[in-house]
Amino acid sequence: MPDARTLAVYSRAARAYAKDGTLPADVDQDADVAAFLSLVPKGAHVLDLGCGPGQWAARLVAEGLVVDAIDPCPEMVALATARFGIAAREATLADLPKTAAYDGVWANFSLLHVPRGALPDHLSHIRALLRPKGALHIAMKLGAGESRDAFDRFFTYYREEDLAARLEAAGFTISHIRRGNRHDRSGDPDTFVVMTAHA
Questions:
Q1: Which residues lie below 8 Å from residue 181, measured CB to CB, with a gap of 6+?
Q2: pLDDT value of residue 187
């Protein structure tokens, strides 16, 4: 779960999105969606972990999946419901029982707010949520260390090989890796990595 300062930033952002009717531009992730879909059955039941304003949950629903969408920010949950009709709910990973309920977990730039020392437990919990051969999509910022950005959001940065090793240690087999570049919402350029894996 994001810390209180990070969560406050997203609360303010959600209210701004709702007021002016716009959402931030998404990175083109068609290849990542395709990689995820290739690992789950038709009509799969998946979790959007940290759904934000709901655009990716809506995309996965449009692809024929059954999606549970959760986010710790109540304003984001309300926005996802209002904008996309997503039945999102306010919750964190810690609120979910460690039972194999999903064919896939979509964690798109959400686990990057988790402190480095806590990531193994988060990955272990996600692994427990997945049915046999269940899929994981994870997108993270590349770099080193932990820091706050200009908006006061907390981020943990990873080297690609470090993130891959952590996934493998949690019992995942990686099938797709993609690097990309974008301008973050703060306006700063950053490099990210997307990995698709299965249990």
A1: 189, 190, 191, 192
A2: 62
